[in-house]
Task: structure prediction
Amino acid sequence: MKQQDFELRHERSWQALEQDLLQKDNSDELIQLPERYHSLCQQLALAKQRRYSAALIQRLNSLVIQSHNKLYRDLPRARANFLYYLVAGFPQAVRRNRAYVGAACALFFAPGLLFFILCWFDDSLIYSLMSYEQVKDFEAMYEPGNQAFGRERQSDTDFAMFGFYIKNNIGISFQCFAGGILFCIGSIFFLLYNGLFIGAAAGHIAHIGYNETFFPFVVGHGSFELIAIALAGAAGLKLGWALLSPGQLGRISALRLASKDAITIIYGSTVMLLIAAFIEAFWSSSSSLANEVKYSVGGLLWFLVIYYLATAGRHLAPR
Amino acid sequence: MFDISYSHETPEGVDLEVELAGPFVRCLAFALDFLLRAFIVCLMLVVALIIGYGNQFGWGLFLLFLFLIEWFYPLLFEFFRGGQTPGKKAMGIYVINDDLSPLSFSATLTRNLLRAADFLPLAYGFAFLSIVVSGRFQRLGDLAAGTLVVHKHQQQLESLPANTEALAPPAQLNSDEQLSLIEFYLRQQQLSPQRQQELAQLIAPALNLSHSDAVRELHLMGAWLLGARGQQ
Result:
């Protein structure tokens, strides 16, 4: 067939396709797009094989690319998925990867606990981790003589601390995640380091006897914050382990596959850290609440977070 | 030598082709983004100082904003602006999934969170190493997310209006032969008439062209290959 006849015969369907490309992604007009796209691909192959002119092939090629992008676009269905994700997707992903979660928790909590106990009994150990000024700073924050940890806090100070906690804590969790791709080394390092640091600080505070201010302060948001950081580390370990031990897949394919679950966990971990920052800035720091209230609520939150991760969405099929 | 072309076969059996963006152009894009980010942060600092004069509210706002800029500046641009941060846009490159479909949200989140690992040990050292080793110019974040950074504009031939005077070639030509005729047509201003005549004489016998009119006929064929169809 001569090129001119070919063009005459198909021109109308190409124009229809060009119209389709202008439509919105959810438009009913697009019902014929897949069919038109399939014929277009065939026509492009024919045009190439019959050595039609470069201009025609280029036009069809660009139409194919645009239709491909239209057809295979990842549609944002975030709103429909969000609820499902909270109820089932996130806790299911955590349970599916419990080996990594277990390892991350061990790396994060074990040295934390160890240094908590060591610093509780040994006054000087803390100075091998932090400088004298740092220790003085955080001692001052929890001095019982102060009504509200350092200074009378207004709501604008609460907000400033909210900003600080977001930047600091979510930054730490992202580091724990990202470091994992370096064959787990980064995740292990950041988990150990932060676990050590937090444990030692808590132990030192207990040692100097500021229990009445420190523990009621941290118990409220600790559940969300500490578990979220451990989860981010678990996601990082998953990436690193995929590179170290890819099984039957190539390393890159294993990494791609692992990153699916890892990013699912990161979404959830980030939401947990947002909640933690909120509690930390606006609830934990309040000086008008009785410590009994803070302990009960904090304990309840620990229970709820673990219960949620362990059981939510058990009976729903994974999507 | 690096091969910068990358092709992906769609389920319909068509090969889509892109050109990968190399480390140098990506560095430039990053530098532009860095300057823009620094400028925005300075601006925000001024705003925070004005709002927060005498209280802590502005400071909190500033920290929040710093967090967003640090982690989400590339992500938001890449997701909402077709895979391009302003720096990438200026350099004419964009991010795309490696099946050459538009960048998905999870992919851009993955590649931008892993930036923290790419940055190590200093000045994007691991990213550079990975780009050189991976063969597709992918940094660690790209490898995990399955994304590529590619050039936006491939060389495009401008089509001629259909009513431009033209002549169909007497035989079917392969793509190299077609391109030669097209180039011959497009470069007629740059080549002297004598040189054009000389070149035309070489090909005239193969296409059965008359000696005297060979240059003009070859030009018309070049026009035809660019979509011109003459008076109809």
Observations:
- Residues 3-72 of chain A form one domain.
